[in-house]
Amino acid sequence: MAEVLELTGLGDVGAGTAAEVLERGGLLLFPKLPFALEPGEAGLIDAAVLSGKSKNISLDPATGAVGGSNLEGERLAAMSAMVARFSARADEILAALTPGYGPHLQKRRTSFRPGAIETRALSPRKDDKRLHVDAFPANPVQGRRILRVFANANPHGEARLWNVGDEGFELFAERFRGKLKARAAGAWRERLGLTKGRRTAYDSVMLQLHDAAKFDDAWQKEAPRTALSFPPGSSWVVYTDSVLHAAMAGQHALEQTYLMPIAGMTEARRSPLRILERLTGRPLL
């Protein structure tokens, strides 16, 4: 199974150790590291704040705009402040855990996820209750890692439940290698506004892995996995592009996404990019 390093606080692990665990395909769990709400914010922890057009509320770091809610005026400002404060808290967590990452990390969207996972009816491709690794169709990462910081802000005592695949990324990719085609990079999607940046051969292969896993019903039933419970008041950190995961239940989580160039990793050879290049026998960037 994926290594889960359970910690009591940010000072409980050395910086090098934290990076090594993450890069080996592990997960850092802090059962008692809450994202504390400020006075007046409790009323925002409610699925009714969603617009109905999006499953999440998100903060764009480039513009500071918050989308996905039906809020206006003071309540929208309060939501923006809460999500921005979580974003800053995620920065603090990574600065303490992996200070060597600091010059390399590229912040992307922050999200608040107030909806209940188990009530969503989605297509297999969009169903995150199926084991998968993350890949972004509209936002190519171009070989960079996807590092995420989560917190469970549920006010009703409900844990967030995940399944984590017991296979490492290399074994998983080897299993589906026959379905992978390292397509040449093209700029047409970017020119047509279908992607925010050029989709590389690496992005194409990762999307194929994501879809191959989600559409394989037999593998979804048989793949070995471990159930994890993230209690209210907990935080966790994981590379979701290499750790097989499925969100099974829970409500009211916050999440911060970062992109991490492999040049900033302790061991770039452990990155999905380098693993997939070894398996396909060709450069993917």
Question: What keywords describe this structure?
Answer:
285 residues, alpha+beta, 8-stranded mixed sheet, 11 strands, 3-stranded antiparallel sheet, Jelly Rolls
Compact summary:
The chain has helices at residues 15-23, 73-97, 169-175, 188-191, 201-215, 217-222, 272-280, and strands at 4-6, 27-30, 57-59, 66-67, 106-113, 145-152, 160-165, 225-230, 235-239, 245-249, 253-260. By secondary structure, it is α+β, with helices and mostly antiparallel strands.
Commentary on this structure:
- The chain is of the alpha+beta class.
- The chain has a single domain, classed as Jelly Rolls.
- Helices cover 26% and strands 20% of the residues.
- It contains seven helices and eleven strands.
- The chain has helices at residues 15-23, 73-97, 169-175, 188-191, 201-215, 217-222, 272-280, and strands at 4-6, 27-30, 57-59, 66-67, 106-113, 145-152, 160-165, 225-230, 235-239, 245-249, 253-260.
- The chain has an eight-stranded mixed β-sheet with strand order 1-2-9-6-11-5-3-4, with helices on one face.
- A hairpin with a 6-residue loop joins β3 and β4.
- α3 runs parallel beside α7 (272-280).
- The protein is globular.
Count the beta strands. Answer: 11
CATH architecture: Sandwich
CATH topology, by name, is Jelly Rolls
Q: Quick check: average pLDDT?
A: 94
Describe the global form.
Answer: globular
Total count of helical runs of at least 4 residues:
7
Count of the separate structural domains: 1
Unreliable stretches (pLDDT < 50, length at least 5) are none
Task: Tell me the series of helices and strands, N- to C-terminal.
Answer: EHEEEHEEEHHHHEEEEH
Q: Could you tell me the strand content as a percent range?
A: 15-25%
CATH class: Mainly Beta
The helix fraction, in percent, is 25-40%
